[in-house]
Design brief:
Blueprint (H helix, E strand, L loop, with lengths): L2 E5 L2 H18 L4 E4 L6 H12 L9 E4 L1 E4 L9 H8 L11 E2 L8 H14 L5 E4 L21 E4 L2 H7 L12 E4 L2 H5 L3 E6 L5 H9 L18 E6 L11
Parallel strand pairs: 1-10, 2-3, 2-6, 3-5, 6-9, 9-10
Antiparallel strand pairs: 4-8, 7-8
């Protein structure tokens, strides 16, 4: 069963999620994290950065892994997900550069790169804390609705809905990459703790679907989270507005 926490605002959602990360870091200073990108986690990363700057959290021994990355964007491309975490978090916190991990989407053999990235996660003992966003269709990372799913890190062809949703970050829709490397749901589910964050009315329908979900459905990838014993869903009032039992 998923644990839902409803907050009054986006800011409260972000702060609460950041405190979850800080508590995990206090328990284990060499915390192994998987962090999300996109519009939703901007506030979370800002609060984590503030904690680092004000000495409320020390990320100097932590390890951070990207959940996904666009093919074939370089790390310094402003549209890459590595750049996003660097811009919103790494530059403001004290995560050592050698402790920041992202798939090499420019590798000659992308399947081998996926295997290498998966090995790096395993070598670090799997994730202690994974923070997730959720797509309008229930996708997690870039694990989109599909009849079958790779459980480990893999190359994915993005569907049109995802491309359209991400087009707002690009000058033109045709500039949105059509492929990405993403962690598989199996890798995500090996995390010791999972926090999923969502905000805004646009996420209300998918949050209701997640709340009401009682069975694993590969066409609704977020349903795989039901397999995990320690998932906390933190969303604001607008995202929870269709869940009558939580009102």
């Amino acid at each position: 069963m998923l644990n839902f926490i409803i907050t009054q605002s986006y800011e409260e959602m972000s702060a609460l999620a950041a405190r979850r990360v800080a508590k995990a870091l206090a328990r284990k200073p060499d915390l192994v994290m998987a962090l999300p990108t996109g519009g939703t986690p901007v506030g979370l990363l800002a609060e984590m950065s503030r904690m680092a700057q004000e000495k409320e959290a020390d990320f100097s021994r932590a390890f951070s892994f990207n959940i996904d990355e666009y093919i074939p964007l370089k790390k310094d491309d402003p549209q890459s997900y590595y750049w996003f975490l660097d811009h919103h978090f790494y530059q403001h916190a004290n995560v050592p550069p050698e402790n920041r991990f992202v798939p090499d989407v420019l590798a000659k053999d992308l399947n081998e790169e996926c295997a290498r990235y998966e090995r790096a996660i395993v070598d670090h003992g799997d994730f202690d804390m994974t923070v997730l966003g959720i797509g309008h269709d229930g996708h997690i990372g870039f694990n989109e609705p599909h009849a079958t799913h790779s459980p480990v890190c893999h190359v994915i062809n993005l569907n049109e809905e995802t491309i359209e949703a991400n087009a707002r970050f690009f000058s033109r829709q045709e500039d949105v990459p059509r492929q990405a490397i993403t962690l598989g749901m199996g890798t995500i589910l090996k995390s010791k703790e999972i926090v999923l964050i969502a905000n805004g009315k646009s996420k209300a329908q998918v949050m209701k679907q997640l709340h009401d979900c009682t069975a694993i459905d590969p066409m609704f990838p977020a349903s795989f989270l039901l397999l995990h014993p320690n998932v906390t869903v933190i969303c604001d009032n607008e995202a929870a507005s269709l869940i009558s039992s939580l009102r």
